[in-house]
Amino acid sequence: MASRTFNVGIIGYGMSAKVFHIPLIATVPELKLYAIVQRNPKSDNDAEKDHSDIKIYHSTEDMVKDDKVDVVVVTTPPVTHLELAKLALVNGKH
């Protein structure tokens, strides 16, 4: 049986995303980095420059409405996790 590939959306583009989550996703054949939410890119920290082949969002609300996103990884400060996880779940994401 062929395995399914799940499109992953990352919320946040700090050290946790860049050093741990994105490299980990790249090692799992069933996962594909599909989108990143980065609200305020800077010239020395820009997801769009680093990952020109994926979708970049500046709003979490827009990303979780994307039907192609299957799984959401929250890499923002812990105090924001509940609100962002609930938003993902309400929009049918894992």
Care to describe what's here?
With about 90 residues, the protein is an alpha/beta fold. The protein is about 35% helix and about 20% strand. A 4-stranded parallel sheet has the order 3-2-1-4, with helices on both faces. Helix 1 (about 15-25) links the parallel strand 1 and strand 2 (about 30-35). The longest helix is centred in the N-terminal third of the chain and has 13 residues, at about 15-25. It starts with 5 loop residues before the first strand and ends with a helix. The mean pLDDT is about 95.
Mean pLDDT score, rounded? Answer: 94
Task: Say how many strands there are.
Answer: 4
Distance between the termini: 23 Å
Shape: globular
Q: Approximately how much helix is present in the residues?
A: 25-40%
Explain the layout of strands and helices.
Blueprint lengths: L5 E6 L3 H13 L3 E7 L9 H4 L4 E3 L2 H5 L6 E4 L6 H10 L4
Parallel strand pairs: 1-2, 1-4, 2-3
Give the tags.
single chain; 94 residues; alpha/beta; four-stranded parallel sheet; 4 strands
